[in-house]
Structure formats: C-alpha cells, structure tokens
Write the structure tokens for this entry.
Amino acid sequence: MLTAEGCKARRQRFLERLKPSHLVVLADSLHLRYFANFYVDGISSSADFGALLVIREDGHATLYHDSKLPKGVEFAQVDERKPLAWYSGQEPELAPRRLVLKPVLDANGGRIHDSIADPLGATIIGITTELRRRKDPDEVALLKTCMKACDAGHTWGRANIRPGMTELEVYSGVANAVFAALGHWAVVYGDFTISVGGKKRGGPPTPHKLEAGELFILDYSVIVQGYRSDFTNTICVGGKPTADQQKLMDLSLSAIAAGAKHLKAGVSCQEVYDTMRNVFAGAGMADYFTTHGGHGLGISHPEPPYIVRHSSETLVAGDVVTLEPGLYVDGVGGLRIEHNYLVTEIGSEQLSNHTIALV
C-alpha cells in the first residue's frame, strides 16, 4: 500500500511544479492512485465510478466519493475522506450515480482540472506523467508485492502446464497461485496462449487444448491497489523443445542479459533497444524481433519510457522498466521473455525473480 507520507510528498511536488493560484480538482483514476492511493477494483459493481480529489494551495487534500464504493477505497491516503450518500439498498437512489459528485464539484469551482477539456488539463497530465517516472520507495515496495505474487504464478505454470490442458485452465491455475501468494483476490490479466510465430504473438486464454511441442507464452500482470507487475516466460508444452525453439530461447536470454547491462540513469532507451537487437542481428534473426524491447511500468501498462526502435527518451533514476525481447518464427513458434528492473544512478535492480526456461 502507498503511504500517507509518500502521497503527501507527491502532491507537494505536483503543486511546486504547477504553482496553482487556486485549489485543484482531480478526477483521473491514474492521478487519484498516484496522489491519494485511491483505487476501485476493476472487477466490481463500482468499476466505472471514481472520486474527486480536491487539493488546496496549501496542500490539504480531501477525497469525495459515493458511499457504495468497495472497502478498498478506505485505504486512501488524504487529509479528509468524505463518502457521499447515494443508495442505501433500502430506499431508491438519491440521484443518478454519475451526478452524486456534482454538488461537490460546483462548490469547488465547477472545473475538473485534469480533464482533457479543461484549460489546465494538458499541463496537469504532462506534469504528472513526468513525475511518475521517478518511483518513490512506497511505490517500489508496492510493485515488489505485485511481482512476488506474479513470481508465484510463473512457478505454478512451469510445474503444471502440460498437454491436454486448455489455456483457460492455465489461467485459472496461475490466478489461484497469485491469490494464494497475496492472501486475497486481485486482477490478473495478460497473454495466456500458444504462439505459432509471427501470426500470433499473444492473446487472452481460450478453450484451445495444449499440444506437445507448442510454445506457450505466459506474460501477465498482477494489479494490487492500482500498481502492477508485468513479466514473461515461454514454456514448451510437454518439455521437449526442438533445437530451433531452444535457439530462440538462448538468443532471447543473451539479449535480455545484454540489455540489462545498459540499464542506468542517463542511458538512452535507444541504446538499450539497439543492444538487444544487435544480439539477434548477430545471429541473422533481427527481422524476427517484431515487438518492442521494453517499457515503463507502474500505475499503467505500458507507460514511459518506451524501449523501442525509434525512442527519444533517456532513463532516469527511479524508472521501473521491463525488458522483453522475443522472436516469432513461423513453423517454429513465438517466444518472449521479460524481467522488471528498477533503474538507479549506478545501474539497476532486478525486481522479478521467476525462472526463465522452456522446460
């Protein structure tokens, strides 16, 4: 969970950059997570409803939301939290749920300042996007919680994926392992599918029954209080990869190791990408590296910086990034691997610890 001190410090940095002459009203779900630890579970009857965060010039923060949101919103880190009555379950609703917050908005200037339609919207979104690059200690701690649970799902996958299972059964097993590691339910999403090569590089789980020799891409995220992991392994169903499949894995392992050596504040994302691509180029396989080389990670997925062929960004201390090289060869299969890293002034810390191997 994000801390009260961390949220307060982020709000203060935001105000120092924005220098508002009046209070600021925020409603974007990403901003409410970042500045107030406010998160509504994605699978709930309230998933489409949010809140208003009112930040005064002196930094005082008040969160307003309807009273029917899940219990998790009680973890919000603000000076005041004010639930508003909407529906008790015994009487009809007091107002359409979308309008419950309107009197609060009217009383606080009538503007949602981080709306793209507001004159301040683009500025606020730009400032917040830049601030989010440098993760605070409480953010890193929460991300490590996500990654530890994600590790547990990968361990289950390596031990249990076998011919005859459906992709949906794999998803169920991985998700249950994640829940057990966390001790509670969470959103688990991503790629849980076989890849035949360039024509299919990923996708959600289906009723497809796994066959021996197929390459199964296990690339998923675990969301806890709005923050998420994202890392990957590819498993050969049946445990007997061909020489060509093993070559894809060996090259990808070499690429990710080479890229990780370049993760350091001040290094361009282009340099990191080129380092990985050059490994594939040396083996005459660069044309099969058709996905991005990695990306930032935190509240959203993906987010800056982007480790891609035409990147213009530079790594900063506090970035949490993924490296995810892969090769997709028709007739052999598609393969992708991925780790998560915290970028520092002197290098990087690997945050994901799952085993990467075909068997």
User: Anything to note?
Assistant: Residues 251 and 282 are 10 Å apart (CA to CA). The chain has a mean pLDDT of 97. The two ends are 35 Å apart (CA to CA).
